[in-house]
Amino acid sequence: LDVVVRLQMTIKPCKPTPALADAVVAGLPEESKELRELLVYEDDKHGFGFAYPRNWHVVTEDDNVVVLRMIERGELIAQCNVSPLGQKPPEHASTLDTLQRDIKQSLGDNFGSFVRAGESKTSSGLTLREVIAQGTASSQPMHWHYYVIRDEAGKRLSFAFTLESELEPQLGEVDRQIVSSVQFVPSASERAAQSSGNAARR
Question: What's the pTM value of the predicted model, to 2 decimals?
Answer without folding.
Answer: 0.78
